[in-house]
Automatic annotation (TrEMBL), chains A, B:
Signal peptide: none
Single annotated GO MF: homoserine dehydrogenase activity
Lineage, opening ranks: Archaea, Methanobacteriati, Methanobacteriota, Stenosarchaea group, Halobacteria
All copies of domain Glutamate/phenylalanine/leucine/valine/L-tryptophan dehydrogenase C-terminal, residue ranges: 3-63
Residues that, per the record, bind NADP(+): G11, A12, G13, A14, V15, G16
Residues annotated for NADPH binding in this entry: K110
Full protein name: homoserine dehydrogenase
Amino acid sequence: MTAGKRLAVLGAGAVGGAVVDLAAAYGHTVVAFADSASAVVDAGGIDADAAVDRKAAEGHVGDDDPEDVLHADYDVLVEATPTTLGDAEPGFSHLRTALERDRHVVLANKGPVAERYADVRELEHDSEGEVRFEAAVGGAIPIVSTVEDLGPSRVTAARGVLNGTANFILSRMAAEGIDYEHVLAEAQDLGVAEADPTFDVEGTDAALKCVILANVLAAGDREFTLSDADVEGITNVPGSALELAAEDGRTVRLVGEATREGIRVGPRLVPGNAALAVTGTRNIVQLETDYAGQLNLSGRGAGGEPTASAVLGDVGRLG
Amino acid sequence: MTAGKRLAVLGAGAVGGAVVDLAAAYGHTVVAFADSASAVVDAGGIDADAAVDRKAAEGHVGDDDPEDVLHADYDVLVEATPTTLGDAEPGFSHLRTALERDRHVVLANKGPVAERYADVRELEHDSEGEVRFEAAVGGAIPIVSTVEDLGPSRVTAARGVLNGTANFILSRMAAEGIDYEHVLAEAQDLGVAEADPTFDVEGTDAALKCVILANVLAAGDREFTLSDADVEGITNVPGSALELAAEDGRTVRLVGEATREGIRVGPRLVPGNAALAVTGTRNIVQLETDYAGQLNLSGRGAGGEPTASAVLGDVGRLG
């Protein structure tokens, strides 16, 4: 059983809020919690319910300064602020501050490991702290730890459906024969797609996850960023393509593939009963391995609790 | 990267032979290797190819005594002798000898953790050595380590198709409309079913794996053995049942379920496109969890290399 750790949580959205909510159930104590403009810090453990309630009611978690979180006394920094591209700031600096203080970092934020993987590994190398990022790829599905346990050099490819919004849209288009615009509207009503769905429907989110996986597979031999990915989203998939596919017992899914050579994301024809033909918002990853054959891992790729379970799973795997 | 360990391998069948074959690729050294009647021991590392070749050509691996393996200087004992029920001997004694010498034990042999789980954990508690057994459940599929990482108390059930022989037979019956006896003969010709297929077709093998999973979920609160399992195999599934199911878009699979309350194995109707409707010899496990939703893990549940990869994955996870 893991000894309880002191967590500092940056980010009060669905994931950060769920981590704060569940930490006690996993035996950990949240000593600091920040959203973009406020924070609550308590060395004895914050009142998690009160902070989450206050965020919902008033829009901030506490009366302290977010900077206070970075300077608090904690064992693990949970970085759950929104993913940013390019310099991956401010998430990258949060990670650097923690590692320079020899603390561990668990990322739900994709930015640092998608866009600055080599920098992250270098900082980690010079630190007593470890960096883990299961929650950045595939929500609750234990993809990164499975690749780690297999040994990245023994995994030749990671391929899958890694964006629930795009998958929901395509599977609804296939099931109902409704066109893209209408299904997108339905998805937005259901909260499955954002008001600005670009990140999901243009394949960027799936690509970031594949870039992270490619960085894991390459294990330091080379570094990939989003700009290395060959990406096509679902915005140009006509309803007729799904109908035509169905006549052949097939369907269309937004499939991403990561190898040591690079990353491709795009709509692909798959057999209707294929493992990749997951429905709704579920995600799946297929790992091609040298000795273990093909492993399929599927589950909830997004959502506060599933992603928080990946964060807390990583906390448990820290040395 | 894991520091290389010295392995002593008991069992020269498909799994033991594959572990000996692959050990070097994983950075480990095999210092001792035994079949039921012979052994080869070399502190500097045995000639793996020569031993495996000799076994194939002459029926024995070396000129030493199998007892020599238990007394050799090694870090990890790989117990890959045939699964036995009841007292789980001689596998259990092999495990005990290793733990009493403060060595680690990695099991491919199901017996000790299916039939004497509490005894195994007690010996482990009193030892510096650890016991791991991924290879005992679902071949290459990382089921046990995933449950371990989630935290067994947060997994409410493990359900799946865990016997490739029975699954092959049922999926061939469904695909071809051939009756059980004929498909069994085909399976035996292909080497997918044993000359005596009882263990597989009567559900015993699947039940043992579910018993092990139930022991993991119960985490010491109670202990299960094969006798606790409610087991029905596939020998009474008529071809007509599969035809009838198909008319409704469904099929039949031998499904096992393990919870903290017990174990059930039996033929079950599942939707044709359900995750559980794996085809051929593939296995699948669905984990129902408190926070991570439902996780599906599928892959090659048997075979020398896939099972050896689970053994070597366990070696890598040892402290």
